[in-house]
Amino acid sequence: MTSSSLRNDNLIYFDNAATSFPKPPTVMEEMMKFMKSIGGNPSRSAHSMSVEASNIVFEARTKLAELFGVKNPMRVIMCFNATDALNLAIQGLLTEGDHAIMTSMEHNSVARPLKELEKRNKIKITVVKASNKGIVASEDIARAIIDTTKLVVVNHGSNVFGVVQQIEEIGKVCRTANVPLLVDASQTAGVIPIDVGSDNIDLLAFTGHKALGGPPGTGGLIISDNFDHSTLRPLRFGGTGSYSDKTYQPTFIPDMFESGTLNTVGIAGLLGGIDFLEKYGGIQKVYAHKKKLTKYFYNAARDNIRKIKFYIEPEICETGVVSFNIEGMEPSLVAQKLSDEYGIMARAGLHCAPMAHQTMGTFPRGTLRFSFGIFNTEKEIDRAVDALATISKG
Amino acid sequence: MAEKSIILYYSSNYAIWTSKLLHKRGMYHKLIPVPRHLSSDCGYCVEVRTEDVPIIEGLLKEYGVEYERIEMM
Ligand SMILES: Cc1ncc(COP(=O)(O)O)c(C=O)c1O
After folding, report:
1. How confident is the model at residue A43 (pLDDT cuts 50, 70, 90)?
2. What's the whole-model pTM score?
3. Which range marks the domain in which residue A293 is found?
4. Does B35 touch chain A (CB under 8 A)?
5. Which CATH architecture has domain B4-72?
6. A-contacting residues of B 3-32, CB under 8 Å?
């Protein structure tokens, strides 16, 4: 399977950092199976269709707990995407007078909830700037921590430049200072091994629809085994199928954070995605494939496109996400030509991360981004390099 | 017929967890609606053999599976 094999129009999909495509066949199979024959609402009734739905959700929790190194599967809170999980953590933890730290590589899904709390005069924020290679020094985070600091938020893998932060170093700093660490693993879950225990991560937000291969509408928040969940307020209140004789929100996990019917069909699909990853050869193999394609693209582009400009060296470009520009050309125009004339899907602009572009000197014009997935091939890259070479002469 | 006991929960998520743990070990268990006379916070409970209760209690403790109480039928 390649990114074009599911469609017969020969399109090339290089936008896997936005959402992965194609989804593995097991994802669609599990979703169809759920819709056709499982169908019940989990945790709501004792009939077999509800129990079967609960089994699917439990299995997904168990797999995700294993994947992220949390022992108790109930500490996997099902959300609707990474943004939802980040909002639960940020809005649930911070209260009036608190100080929070984020890095200059954050996505707007972290920056905006924090800025909103700041705008309402609730909290103060310090932005720790990354180097011109996009790397945040853990010492800089240590220096930014003050008495009122209640949260450090770090984007593990940049959705713009593909650089990855030394999360275990940052984790040590936060543990020493006794400040909770929230990690945005949107770009790294399923690509880089993460263990919330040994990495000293308190809360980890992940999305299901990128490297894990699941459908949109899936994601979650991992609450590490030692983190006191009662310090986190729910984002939503409502029906959970438990505690039904009371009109107060339950206080146990995962129920207290999972009001309303879960995206069961999506969760079944996510389970199919994780199963596929295991059969594919695991996270190490995903990482190796993305790294190989990244190097191949850098080499081919540098050999064939005179005016190409990269912003970091391929050695620190880790997650298959590559930002570049064709000198003298608007990235959005190049992306349009790639789509319209060559059938190549790429994203141009600021990628919801204005501070990351400011850090790397690519603001406000932005960059063109290729993000490779497990189904992309070197052949597809050859086609894209040829197209870029032609466009760059135009 | 072996005596039965019932494990009651706050949340059915933990009932499902119990059933998986017992299934893996080949121990008798059945997810059933909470009997009328036993009020509980959650819609279903797990029926087990009374003779297995000590082992099951140990297992639930080991894994951190929270439950409300165990009732002999
Ligand atoms: C770094 C980062 N954070 C957050 C998000 C938001 O993810 P989602 O669309 O699943 O909410 C994304 C992806 O768009 C991302 O790349």
Report:
1. confident
2. 0.95
3. 3-16+282-392
4. no
5. 2-Layer Sandwich (3.30)
6. 9-14, 16-17, 20, 31-32
